[in-house]
Amino acid sequence: MPNYNLTYKPFGGNAILIEWPSEINESILYDIIAFKNKIENEINLQDIIVGYNSLVLVSSFKIERIHDTISSLKELYNQPSKTKIHKTTHWEIPVCYDQQFGIDLEEISQKKSITKDKIIQIHSSTIYTVYFIGFLPGFLYLGGLDEQIVMPRKSTPRLRVPKGAVAIGGSQTGIYPNESSGGWNIIGNSPISFFDAQKVSPCFAKTGDKVSFKSVSYDEYKMIKEKVNSNVYQLKTIL
Amino acid sequence: MITVLNPGIYSTIQDFGRPGFANIGVPISGVMDSYSAKIGNQLLNNNREDAVVEITFGGCKFMFKKDMKICITGANFNMKIDDKETQMYSVLEVKKGSVLSFGKKVVGIRTYLCVQGGFLSEVVLTSKSYYNGITVNDILKKGDQLKMDTYNSLNVQTFSKIKIDKSHFKTNEIECDKGPEFELLSEEQQKALTNNLFTISNDNNRVGYRLVELFKNQLTPILTSGVLPGTVQLTPSGKLIILMRDCQVTGGYPRILQLTESGINSLAQKSTNDKLQFRIN
Predict the structure, then answer these.
(1) CA separation for the pair B233, B231 (Å, rounded)
(2) Which of B179, B224, B228 sits opposite A141 (nearest CB)?
(3) Taking an 8 Å Cβ-Cβ cutoff, which residues of chain B contact chain A?
(4) ipTM of the complex
(5) If contacts are CB pairs under 8 Å, which of residues 159-178 in chain A contact chain B?
(6) Which of these CATH numbers, 3.40.1350.10, 3.40.190.10, 1.25.40.10, 3.30.1360.40, describes A7-78?
(7) What's the topology of domain A90-238?
(8) Per residue in A68-90, pLDDT tens?
(9) Could you report the per-residue pLDDT of B58-97, keeping only the tens digit for each?
(10) What is the phi/psi pair of residue A42, to 5°?
C-alpha cells in the first residue's frame, strides 16, 4: 500500500478535511477506503464523506483541541490496517440505449465522428469504479469512461432529466437516481432503482464497488422495470 | 390534531435532520434556524429533537382540533389566534376550534410552530424532516391533518422564560471560520471578503443562498469533495453560494468559508436583498 503525503485541515468547528494528491486514480481511492475503515474503527463520527481525493470527517459536536485530533489521525494513518480487506461487489446494470431514451446519442455521434452503435458498445464494455456517492441520494460517481466517448457537459443544463437516465458528463458517466435538473449528455435509461429511502439499505452500491452496463432491448427494459416495481428484481453481480 | 387551512408559500415539517447517511448522498436537512426551533421545544418542555413546523414567509392558517399547548418562535409575522394578537416565545394554551393566522412580516422569514409532544410524521432514515425523494410529503398542503405525539418528555427542567438574543434577527454579521480553500485567495481578496457587504439574491432557499455581488477570483475548481451546511463556495465566475441545510453532500467549487451553527441560524432568517457581512472567528 503506498503511503501518500496527506494534508489535514480543520473544516469549521465540527469537521476535518483530509486530502490526498489532487488526482483521480484507483490507488488513491483504495488508500482512502483503507484509512476510512481505520478511522471508523477508532472514532465515533456522524459522517465520513468520501471525495475523489479526500475524506471529510464530520462530528456531531464541536471538536475540541482539533489539532490534537489531527495528530492522532496522522499516527493512525501510519499504523498497519487491522481490518479485513474491503469487500467490493461488481454490479451489472441493465441499460436500454434505445433512441427514445438516448436523446443525446446523435449529437455525440456527430461531434465525435463515431457511430451510435460504437458509443453503446464502448460504454457497455467498460468496467467502472464507484468513487463515491454524492450530488443526489444514490448518485454514483463512476470513473473509467473510455476517452473516445468523453463529452463535455451541456452549456445549458436541462431542467428535467428523467429518473434512470444514463449520461456522460466530461470524463464521468452516471445514472440519475431520480428526476432532477442536469447538464450531462443522456445516452440511455436504466430500469433499476438506485435509491429507495424505504429500504434498509437505500442504495445497493458503495465506494470501491465496480459497475458495468449491459445493453437491453426496450422489451427487456419494460420487463425488468415491472419486476423492479413489484420488488422481485434481483440485480446481477459479476464474480 | 391541527388542520392546515392555508399552507402558505413554503411550510414543512422539520426535526434536526438525518445525519449519518452522507455515504449514500443523503442531505442532512433539519430546521434552518435551529436556535429558534430549539427554544420552542425548550419552552414546551419537549424533547430537544422533537419535530416542528417550519413556515417560510408566513401566509399560513392552522385550525386546532383540540385543546393543546403550543409555542411560536423565529420570524414574527404578526400572528393572531382568532383575531387576538399572540405572544411569541411563550407557551400558549389554545382551544379546540381556534385558528392561528399569519399577518405582515415584522422580522425574520422563518417561523416555527411547536406543539407539546412534537409533530408526528413519517420517519425515513431516522428523521421526520421533509425532503423531496426521501419523504412521501415534501411540503404542507391545504387540508393536511397534522398529528402530534403523546407528551412524554423526560425533561424535568422547566423554562418559564428564555431570554431571546435580539441580534439573532438584527445583525448583518454572519459568523464563520476560514474554509479549507481560504488560503488560496490573495491577501487582498481575503480582506475584501470580510470588509465588503454582500447582498442576498432572490435565489435563496433551504438548499443554498446565492449572493448578488461577483467576487473576482482565479481559483480553479477542486476535485469533487465533501461539503457541509454553511459551506461558502466560490465559483470560477465569482458567484458566492452559501450552502444550507438541504445541500448536497459533495461539491466541486473551492470552499472559502464555513459558517458556524450560529451563522447558519442568523442567515436562515434573512432573504432577498438583505445585506450581510462575513465575520471570521
Answers:
(1) 6
(2) B224
(3) 19-27, 124-125, 133-135, 177, 179-180, 222-228, 230, 248-250, 255, 258-260
(4) 0.94
(5) 178
(6) 3.30.1360.40
(7) Cyclophilin (2.40.100)
(8) 999 999 999 998 877 666 789 99
(9) 999 999 999 999 999 999 999 999 999 999 999 999 999 9
(10) -100, -35
